[in-house]
Amino acid sequence: MLVVGVLAAGGISFLVQSGMLTWNGGHQSATSDGPRMVRVVYINTGQIMADVLKSQMNGTLTRHQAAEMGHIIGLTVQEIASGYAKQGDIVLSRNVLAAPESNNMTADALAVVKARLAQRFGQTDD
C-alpha cells in the first residue's frame, strides 16, 4: 500500500511539473510584483526604553504607571514602524550592528515617545 501511494504521488508530481496536469493553486514567482529597492529603517527600541527609564530614575513611578509607560512606548513605536512600512520601508529594531545614520530613526521615534509620555504623565525629560 505504501509503495502504491509513493508511486501515485510521484506520478502526479511528474504530471504537474511537466505541464500535462494543471494545478489551480495559483502559482506566482518570488520575483514578480515585488519592490526591487527597499529602504531599511532602524529604530533602536532598547535605546528608547533606556532613555525613558533614565529620565524617570527619581523613583516616583508606581508599577502601574511603569506598565502603562511601557505600553505607550510599545504602541507608539509600532505606529511609527507601521508608518514606515506603509511607505514600503522595512523596519528593524534589534540585532543591527551598523546602519547608515540617514536610516537611523531612533531620535525621531524617541521624540514622539517622549511627547506622548509627557501628555500622559507630565514632564519626562531630565
TrEMBL record:
From the Swiss-Prot or TrEMBL record, give the protein name.
Uncharacterized protein
